[in-house]
Amino acid sequence: MGFNDILKSLFGNKADRDLKELLPIASKVNAEWEKIKGVSHDELRKISADLKAKIHAHVKVEEDEIASLKAKVENDKPSIEEREEIYNRIDKLEEQINTKLEDVLNEILPLAFAVMKDTARRFKENNEIVVKANDFDRDLAVTKDFVEIDGEDAVYFNSWVAGGNEVTWDMVHYDVQLIGGSVLHQGKIAEMATGEGKTLVATLPVFLNALTGRGVHVVTVNDYLAKRDSEWMGPLYMFHGLSVDCIDKTEPNSPERRKAYQADITFGTNNEFGFDYLRDNMAIHPEDLVQRKHHYAIVDEVDSVLIDDARTPLIISGPVPKGDIQMFDEYKPRVEKLVRMQRELVARIFTEAKALLASGDRKQEEQGAILLLRAYKGLPKYKPLIKFLSEQGNKATLVKTENIYMQENNRRMPEITDDLYFVIDEKQNSIDLTDKGHDTITAAGEDPNFFILPDVGSELAEIDKMNLTEEEKLEKKDQMVQNYAAKSERVHTVNQLLKAYTLFELDVEYVVIDNKVKIVDEQTGRIMEGRRYSDGLHQAIEAKENVKVEAATQTFATITLQNYFRMYHKLAGMTGTAETEAGEFWDIYKLDVVVIPTNKPVIRKDANDYVYKTKREKYNAVIEEITRLVGEGRPVLVGTTSVEVSELLSRMLKLRGIKHNVLNAKLHQREADIVAEAGKSQVVTIATNMAGRGTDIKLSPEVRAAGGLAIIGTERHDSRRVDRQLRGRAGRQGDPGSSQFFVSLEDDLMRLFSSERIIRVMDRLGHEEGDVIQHSMITKSIERAQRKVEENNFGIRKRLLEYDDVMNSQREVIYKKRRHALLGERIGVDIANNMYDVCETLVEEHKDANDLESFRMDVLKYFAVDFDIKEEDFQKTSANNLTERLYKEVRDTFSRKTETIAKQAFPVIKNVFEQRGEMFKNIVVPFTDGKRAYNVVANLEKTYKSEGEELIRAYEKSIMLAHIDDAWKEHLREMDDLKQSVQNATYEQKDPLLIYKFESFNLFKSMVDKINKNVVSTLMKGQIPFEAPEEVKQAEEKRTDLSKMRTGRSDAPAAQTNQAPRKTEPVKVGPKVGRNDPCPCGSGKKYKNCHGKGEE
Questions:
Q1: Distance (Å, whole) CA 718 – CA 1041
Q2: CA-to-CA distance for 1028 and 943, rounded, in angstroms?
Q3: pLDDT per residue over 686-715, tens digit each?
Q4: Cα dist. 57→51, 52, 97, 209, 213 in Å?
């Protein structure tokens, strides 16, 4: 018995402890449910209204205080210092409200869950539910087909359209779903098996948290599920007066999208939630903001969103000048030639290695092992080599030889690799050119160092030693830096082309459709529209496949899903497989994983893996197994890891005359039809892991009697989660079923990560061709190999997150400043802080140098203030006192200036308002700082009533937004360049991340300093260059223009593709209401005079 087993016997395992804590909650909910089962439909709705009122009463004191503090800022015009105190108090009150809301929600949870459970029961047991109609019901009846108004009553039906199909409600929550719901409410991850009704479970916490009115976001992995779930579950919420909407049914930046976010419950895809956040932080009008505060989100398929998609940030990008000038096509012929030469070399080395290893002479065998390792380092995916390594003893020989040469930090490895043109490390996904490779790829007559990066430090030191003037040294240094930049891009281009040719295979990692390279999701086998490989790798693959190489773009806004979802006050998730990634969920998101027991025991039989020597034997065995299962009348689901394998198995089944369906990235449009057939007797379905997520295969009684759905895995995936998802398709809700994985020693997982122990066991057992091994020890060894891969992937994701955390801390500062400027509430405090920071910077710069003249010149340059101070005072006064003195004078000057501008503008504004006030809503007032003109848009009525003060606020807002956006855009470009350039630090044995953190901090500091100086300078120098009222023009109603922006997924500024055009889906057309017909809301008015107002 191991130490962990002893601990489990003493304290129980985590699942048991979680269940012990949660079971009483289910009992309390059921007790409340028994009490309310007998109440009328109207009384049930009143209970939910009372719960809503109780929540609002619990936080009324804090909400009232916030309202009074905001009114005080608006009406009493407090000083900047007082305003800052007020805003800090508001922030504290918001935190208190969040805490108090959680307290009251926990208190009412049993009753709220019982209300939702009984609502589900009533919809199941009644075709119609009649209640007294309220205004919400009447509005609903106009657009929804499940509500009708009959006089004073509202009639809710239990059938409606969801996802294009008519559904009749037939579900009621069972006890394990009540447990799952309480886990989600606590802000944890509920792991629930397939067929346990995760969508229904979510209705419990969604309903409870929506009662607060602060918005609940239900996040799905694709737009079909977002639309279907909002339509499927929506009527249960709407019955209780909660509004429901789906952002994926609306256009970005539209009033409809904003309305969707104002709903109590908002469904949508992870991408759209993230892109809307970025778009909001590019908006130039408050009306363009669509999102509210991020309060509570439930993420469906949480492992897919927060683990698999976490590597690739969301990016909004735009065109860059000369973005189509790239080197991929230029260097492609050289790389093709180099790869061809390496293939020929490896083929010769491998042939010689085999001959030496078979010679029987010990010395020759040792030489053969060295050549085998050399071939492996040159082309690890060389198919004859893979087959040879699967034979008895060969893999062990390779591993033993590699260990010898890897000793002392790879000291002897060059003896192996120097004869190659380049060296591939498949585990690290990296390629390095050898000296021989550099010589080969460099054309005749070119600089021998054409593809070699110089040592910048030593070259700079050499220039400093030269007997040159300072100007000449500076010129040489500039030339050297330019040369380094050009070489860096050249080396990067060649490296990415080498990766494209040797590590990325067509129909495995990507497919080419409509002359475009599209990435295939390794977890699901689906095509990832709009996704591109980063750092120019996608362009390299485009060059390799002879399709158009897309132009480079510039990042305008970016965020990872990890950092987006960490903004929520409370985050929860649900999935069928999260336990294997529990450590990562806790480490990054502080999310605990709770395994929910199944409603009925799982009776599926999971067999130990069948292990074969070669892929050929394995696939033949798979076909034999399929033939046997079909003969028993069972449906078979075959899981593959690539398009290539699914097509190979399809051809083999055709030769046997076995009918089957294929579902892969090339045929993903037929997914719904194929999955609907997959549970029928003798139906064979081949799927590239696609049927592993978001699908529910239902069985007929005949199939259950025959033994249920048979799962066949043709390869172990890198991640245990994906294998568990595939297994989970069988055995839903107590159904019979079986699962069997077929593995070969040639599989990628076994080649790269299987242990020496498993190789030795195979050899000892005398594993001959055609033999199969099946043993629990082998299955456990394979799962240990998977664990190694998961740890490796976690390391990669964490590394990427560390890079993005640097960006995120900067993003939060800038977006906060921007939001304050856009909304105008706290802009006065921010401007005062900007002024103080610039004062402090100028004093620090000049006090140490004791340079009064330069100090006064800079004060005049940035503040347009002639700061009168004597030499003696400048020397004696401390830096803090000098800063305070300068700041006071600047503040006083700015106050006088803004009063003067307001007085100057007011007569003109007054004239325009009195003469043309009915015609104009907003006006454009031109400002200038002597260098640049700014058209400031202000509300005419507010400006008139505040006697010009509103114009000053609008001026401050325009200047802040203009300078922040310009500087941030430039900063993102510099950060993109920095992220790419620091990767070269690995050649100098330095950590790129440390350099990135250090350099990015300096870049950010200089950007903030630049923003502060530019904002303050423009505000202090600004003036209105007009006198006549006729120069004041009406402001056109304009929305933020994002038409040239593109959304995409990547982790570097590689070119982005436009989002895929929205798929046309079947639309259910209901009876159209005529303009002169009675309005469906039951008001008695004609439709055109009621809910049809404004329609043509």
A1: 43
A2: 17
A3: 887 655 455 567 788 888 888 888 999 888
A4: 10, 9, 11, 15, 13
